[in-house]
Each structure stands twice: as C-alpha cells, then as structure tokens.
# Entry
Amino acid sequence: MSGLQSRLVIGLIKKRHLFSFRLKPEVVDEHFSVEAFREQLDRSSAKVKLPKTVSSEITSVDGLHAEWIIPQHPKKDKILLYIHGGGFISGSTITHRMHVSKFAEKCQLRSLLFDYRLAPEHPFPAAVEDCTTAYRGVIDLGYNPKDIIVGGESAGATLTLSLLLALKQEGIPLPRAAFSISPVTDLSCSAKSFGYNAKKDVAPMGSWTVWTNLYIAGNDTRNPLLSPLFGNYEGIPPLYICVGTHEIHLDDCVNVARVATEYGVDVTLRKWDRMVHAFPLLTPLFPEAKKAFGEICDFIISHSK
# Structure
C-alpha cells in the first residue's frame, strides 16, 4: 500500500491540468504540437539549478552534444552513461541534468548525459544509432566497457535495452551492467496494461499511441532494436528493471524481464505497489520514490566497484 505522501504527490501530478486552469486532463491527439511541448519543457527545466555538490561540463561525443555531470569525489575510471526519456519526441541535456545529478551524487560517478535525435524529425533508428555513437564515444575516450554502467528512464529505458541489443549485434563489448526504469518494450503498445492502467498512470491519455507512432514511422514493431521485447538477450550483462504496478508499461516490463531471464541474464525486476511512470526520479518527494531510487543506486554502486 502506498503512503499518504506518495498519494498526495501523485494526485497533484494527475491533476496538473488544473494548474493551467483547464478543467479536463490533456489528451494527446493529432493536434498535439511537439515543438510547443519541447519549448515548454526546456523553459521550465532551464530554471532549475544543479546542487553545489556537483559540477557540469559541456562537451561533444562524436558530434553529439553532451554534458558531464561530475560529483565532488568521483570514482576513478568509472562512469554512468545516462539515456534520457521523453517519449522519443522530447527530452535533452537541459531537461534531465537535474535527474542525472542525483545519480552522479548518490553513486559518486562521472555521468554523461547526451542529446540524441528525436522524432518526428528523426524516427527510428536514429535514436538507437546515436546511443551507439555515444557509447562508442566514451570507449574512444579511454573508458573500459567493464567500467561503464548504462541506464535511463521511460523512452531512455527502452533505448537502454535497444542499445544493449545493438552493441551485441555489432560485436561491440558490452557495459558492466544496465538499469531500465519504466521501459516500453513492445512499441505496438498492445500489452493489456495500456488498458487497465490507462487512468491510473500519469502519462497523458493517448500519448503512448501518438508519440510512439511518430518514432515508429511505419517500421516493423517486432524489430528488436525498436521493440526490445523481441530481442535475444543471451550474453547481456546484469539488468535492473523498475516499474510501478499502476503503470501502462507494467506488462512490458514483466514480459521483457521474463524473456531476458530465459536467456540466462541476471535480471532484477522490482515492481512497486501503486506507483506510476518513472516514479524513482521524483525522489525525494515521497518515501517510495526515495527507496526505489536508492535501490537502483545500490545496483549501480555494486557494479561499479
């Protein structure tokens, strides 16, 4: 059972339309403006300042705009490569630097956040290609794959799994471990939880159809690099998957955890009662988010010694 504090915070998120003086929640349809949505996110995110315990350094990784988030006492030669979420159509170093700073500080890891190409201008496989480019880039900087942890949330969680499969397919040495927070793993969005959790989750109604289709752009949703549920996970490193039981992505997370386990992967699947999409990033607003975030960091720390 979730606590009063989490119910209050999640309830406010679900009622966020009221803060914009709208009586009904937003529904994403064919009239949705990607440009306006991105501008709104960047504008609000630009106001957020990083804590004094971390510093940032703008950089470029094989042509990709990126940013190092660096704690005061980072572990030597160990890094986190973070892949941001945003429904495949939004998100950037601007929107996610605060989230990544929490991981960097808690895990004491230099953490690289980068901008990958977004749909609809750049549909699949552009994002997967850019994630592969970023991973190759940090290896070219001298980091050993066994000293790299890869992870992300939402679309970034999906791309984390796609990246692992792409690296395996291309014969590139895999990272030490990976974590995936609330991934969609079958982009046909046909899992039953898209129905029974639609009104329980915090995702705007219809977003999973409109946003994902902009990314799919007519490609076969059974392509493992697009829908990692259909991948061959043999040889994939330890994997941590986190999901809330009120998420539209619940079944996708359970299913991909089962598939990876059947291929012999060391999988940790954590299902959190009554929690919503990507809730660990809401730490420290309520105890469940703080605990889930701590468990993910424990996983990262245990594989970055």
User: Anything to note?
Assistant: The chain has a mean pLDDT of 95. Residues 180 and 290 are 17 Å apart (CA to CA). Strands lie at 54-61, 64-71, 79-83, 110-114, 148-153, 177-181, 239-244, 267-272.
